[in-house]
């Protein structure tokens, strides 16, 4: 029996080999599937690992193998019972939304101007925008921290105490996300034919009228891409989200929620893993729904920069 | 001005004024919001940091910094004289895994090289037509969309000695120590691994854009001429995708030089002291002058890198950062 099996196996391999030599395309096909499988495994395995840790009861989390020890799905409810994790998630969503609104509003005007007008100072200004996007977050940290802890005086006015509020994260991140969005939208606006705007102007539309009636409706896809990208970038951000709130205030984003489980006595590994899975869910949904926007946005915005 | 025009339609008056502006005036009016945001949240902070970096540290009195010292902070950092006052040395070759500059460079080199290779391979896969391609694309993009804190948490949970499945076997093989997250060298390696997991997809997407802009008829011509798959790759794919690859490389290099979040979550800034980490720990120690000087040195290094790139590839079609 066994020999038979080996025989057929050998035959199968020989068959594959012969076919591969005769038709290299099919061998190539096999290679493609192997490589794809490797990438899928590498991308998805870490999520599986989170799941393993999450459903294993915390006291059993010792010397884990690749399978969960026990099954304890109620951990996903416990996350919300232990700390108000939904508040942290909501905070992250609010911060990301506010930043996206600011970036889209301000960035789209700038993108429109850079994309459709040629004016003195255009190249130096674009260069400044580009250079800003390359500075490390730490180069902005000290003054922005001073500013938002009411330690800066300007024209006799004390700066507001914004530390521990969403604005202390929204404002610096708006500025740092802005360059990417400007480059993305300016290429988008530049692709709209001049004729359309000119026609509207000849028909008696004002500058702003043409902008509102012609340009804005046509740029909806670019707008969507820019919005999704900036939402993802801000939701995932670490530096300012970590340092501009104390972590105990009411406005802490998701990362402080996850750090909460590193308790003083015992680390709740299962809760930490479960919270991480829950924290990824919004992004997973967004990527699934908006994958085409993300791909086109990243490639356009980045390559044009 | 027609004085009989009803003046309560303020919006019309404003629109009228905007209509009369010269084009340059109109443009700068439109740019006002962005100049305000970037000016207050980016340019002013940079100037402020630059100014701080020229002042002495002031640990004792409530003032932020002491007197003006010129470039002394920079000199102290670059000559190693500042090392004793920092949490970890800035540059100390006798302890490469404990000092900021070598750690950051090793991180950048390791992460970016691997991300380029894997990203290229991933892009080649995603460029093919096969069943389930959309699913494969979502699965491969997903790591890029994961919050940095969760990325760090995943690798922390994998390599935490008492729980992670990877520590035992790898330790038996002698590849890592028994408590890798407390060992600077191992923790650096794990941070690089975490970065590769998340950022290869970003690299792949940028390279994919380059691949998809290649004119497919070139391949047909090459096929007719009898070029093998490898020849086609060497003579068509690689040279044509190179500009996109270089941009992706530049992006990732710059981001890797700024790394902070992953190392802080996977291990800690004390175990893997990258330059950004060192700025934060120095800032926490109230040494604002030194912290600002380190931050600015990072910025200068990145600026130089960008300059080299711009000069090297200026005017090259599609490859330059065509501003």
UniProtKB/TrEMBL annotation, chain A:
<keyword id="KW-0812">Transmembrane</keyword>
<keyword id="KW-1003">Cell membrane</keyword>
<keyword id="KW-0472">Membrane</keyword>
<dbReference type="InterPro" id="IPR000515">
    <property type="entry name" value="MetI-like"/>
</dbReference>
<feature type="transmembrane region" description="Helical">
    <location>
        <begin position="30"/>
        <end position="51"/>
    </location>
</feature>
<comment type="similarity">
    <text>Belongs to the binding-protein-dependent transport system permease family.</text>
</comment>
<feature type="transmembrane region" description="Helical">
    <location>
        <begin position="271"/>
        <end position="290"/>
    </location>
</feature>
<keyword id="KW-0813">Transport</keyword>
<feature type="transmembrane region" description="Helical">
    <location>
        <begin position="211"/>
        <end position="233"/>
    </location>
</feature>
<feature type="transmembrane region" description="Helical">
    <location>
        <begin position="125"/>
        <end position="149"/>
    </location>
</feature>
<dbReference type="GO" id="GO:0055085">
    <property type="term" value="P:transmembrane transport"/>
</dbReference>
<protein>
    <submittedName>
        <fullName>Carbohydrate ABC transporter permease</fullName>
    </submittedName>
</protein>
<keyword id="KW-1133">Transmembrane helix</keyword>
<feature type="transmembrane region" description="Helical">
    <location>
        <begin position="87"/>
        <end position="113"/>
    </location>
</feature>
<dbReference type="InterPro" id="IPR035906">
    <property type="entry name" value="MetI-like_sf"/>
</dbReference>
<feature type="transmembrane region" description="Helical">
    <location>
        <begin position="169"/>
        <end position="190"/>
    </location>
</feature>
<dbReference type="Pfam" id="PF00528">
    <property type="entry name" value="BPD_transp_1"/>
</dbReference>
<feature type="domain" description="ABC transmembrane type-1">
    <location>
        <begin position="89"/>
        <end position="290"/>
    </location>
</feature>
<dbReference type="GO" id="GO:0005886">
    <property type="term" value="C:plasma membrane"/>
</dbReference>
